[in-house]
Specification:
The protein has helices spanning 2-71, 74-99, 115-124, 172-175, 191-206, 209-214, 233-251, 256-259, 294-303; strands at residues 104-109, 138-142, 157-161, 179-187, 218-223, 281-285. With 306 residues, it is α/β, with parallel strands linked by helices. The chain is elongated, with a radius of gyration of 38 Å.
Length: 306
Amino acid sequence: MFQFVSLQIVSGETSIYFCVLVLRKKMEGTEQWKYQLEQWKNQFEQWKNQLEPWKNQATQWLNQGIEYSHQIPPTQLYSALAVLLFTILFFLFIRLFKRAKSDTIVLTGLSGSGKTVLFYQLRDGSSHQGTVTSMEPNEGLFVLHSETTKKGKIRPVHLVDVPGHSRLRPKLDEFLPQAAGIVFVVDALEFLPNCRAASEYLYDILTKASVVKKKIPVLIVCNKTDKVTAHTKEFIRKQMEKEVDKLRASRSSISEADIANDYTLGIPGEAFSFSHCDNKVTVAEASGLTGVTNQVEQFIREHVKA
């Protein structure tokens, strides 16, 4: 009985002892926090005192500015504000213009010229085993296949392959306003039978307002030049210039045929040359089936910077 009572007393004393220790620890922690908060308060007061002269100086400058503005005649003040506003808007416009620079290249031409094969070569380095007929625009945003092994960040190209069938050509107008360049593909192997039709289609493109106003560059690509019987780019250029010259003469008179065209081409009284166009027109060679597309890629990167 006495042993049991003594054990209870001992256990009670131990519990009290532990409670005292816990309270002591908590008090010590509270004191540390009080000390830390006091330090932060002193630091804040120190910063406040350091900033006080700057605050006074800023207030003084503001008051001086207000007094000076009251001395300026209203007309001069409004003129200065107008110049400042114009300058700000000008730089904002320049920045927006740079950001909005197009990354779209449009592939077009007659059906069977090899546009879609070129599209696949540029995208993934494959020809898709020969002739590919497209009834809807092929469209993709990608890094050119030849550039996939290059290091660093490369700007992707938005490439659009517009079908060449006459009934589907109106789709071209959807993409021309945003185009940075136009690749017009010509079949160098079967050129002569299609020369007239290809020249008419090219004439329609070169006289469109969206092309002329923005001076969208055009690359005429003579495709399938890997074949022995293919015509050279010099021959194709001269023949197309002759055909465009004929079209210009026939459509120059006021007629319904001329209404569809927004602008006329060339210099009056002179034989037509692509150098007479307001936008830059160049001629290149390629072979979609064999993957020879370096001149096309050079044109693309000239107008869509990597």
